[in-house]
Amino acid sequence: MSSLSAPLPGLCARASRDASGASRAAPFRTAQLRGGQSRALGAGRQKHVALSRRRGLTPRAFTPTGSFQTPRESDLPLTDDTMEMLGTYSPPRASSYSPASASPGGSYSEHKPKTPPPDLPSLLLDSRIVYIGMPLVPAVTELIVSELLYMQYTDRSKPCYIYINSTGCQRADGEVVGLETEATCIYDTMKYIGNEIYTVGTGVAIGQACLILSAGNKGKRFMTQNATAMLHQPKVPSTGQRQAIEVHIKWKEVLEQKKNMVSILSSTTGHSMEKIDKDIQRPLYMDAKAAIAYGIIDKVIDKNSQGIDKILSNDQWDTAAGLVKSSR
User: What is the residue-wise DSSP string for 156-204?
Assistant: First the structure.
């Protein structure tokens, strides 16, 4: 019965309501809350003061509402923790002083060049060198003809150097990949420009590539010591399903291309058209010495022969490039 004699705060609030609806138990309840809050804030302040003293900081003051109030900058000691709290200093980490520490890279491609590497054909073109290292397909023909025309436009008096390592209009396995007109296009451009043409056979020069090798200026046609040249008849690409008259027309076109090829080889080698027509009935392989005897090339070139051109001195290169050497 004694426990029921003390009224609960909620019951007191409901029992003591007057006509206006105001609660008479409100001051009693507020006093209870303020007492518990003050005890909690007092314990928190003691803990904050002890922690601040261990860290060498001045304790922050409490406001009447119980929130912390940051002291003025002049009241704080200038330590790393203080400056970090104010946001004016970021203390160094211990790992940054370690000689073995290294920041990880962003990715494996971090050290790749930001710009694409220089185009190798463009670098060779700067030295007036054209390299044919693929079968004669339209994309290759476009590049070779463009380079020859550009060199003629820049300087008609300087020679052009064409290095050849190509299987002609076919792949290494004999499959036709380009028309015979790809080679005649390059040949006509070589004869059209007024520059002197040096040709050098490296690796292999097969079929139409051998025709281009023989088309250089007389006395300026070369092969490396272990290179190979080969002549063969024009090959007909697969025509698919066609009518008989279309196959006959294609056969006549290939025959005209063969006559054109034989005529060009006759003018570059000095042999009669009948002899060349007979020789190319089957593949005609030639090494460097046999190519000289047949008239495809004029000389065999190696490192010490200096057969292509004379080696210029540094001053001669500077003069040719238009550079003025400063004299002291």
Answer: SSS-EEEEEEE-TTB-TTS-B-S-THHHHHHHHHHHHS-S-EEEEEEEE
Q: How many Cβ atoms sit within 10 Å of the Cβ of residue 121?
A: 15
Residue 161's CB: how many other CB atoms inside 10 A? 21
Tokens standing for residue 53: 């003293």
Say how many CA atoms lie within 13 Å of 45 toward its Cβ: 16
* Contacts with 226 (C-beta within 8 Å, 6 or more apart), sequence order: 287, 288
Q: What is this structure's pTM?
A: 0.59
Q: Is 61 helix (H, G, I), strand (E, B) or coil?
A: strand
User: Model confidence at 309, in pLDDT bands (50, 70, 90)?
Assistant: low
Measured distance CA(258)–CA(143) in Å, rounded: 25
Q: What is the DSSP string of 102-156?
A: -PPPS-TTTTS-SSPPPPHHHHHHHTTEEEE-S---HHHHHHHHHHHHHHHHH-S
Q: What is the pLDDT of residues 116-163, one digit of tens each?
A: 666 787 788 888 999 999 999 999 999 999 999 999 999 999 999 999
Buried b (16+ CB within 10 A) or exposed e, 188-219: ebbeebebebbbbbbbbbbbbbbbbbbbbeee
Contact by Cβ (8 Å): 35, 14: no
Q: Which two tokens mark 62?
A: 């409490």
In whole angstroms, give the CA distance from residue 214 to residue 220.
10
Query: How many CB atoms are located within 10 Å of the residue 131 CB?
Result: 20
**Tokens encoding 231:** 């002549």
Q: Are 197 and 156 in contact (CB under 8 A)?
A: no
- pLDDT digit string, tens, across residues 9-53: 444 444 444 444 444 444 444 444 445 545 555 555 566 556 666
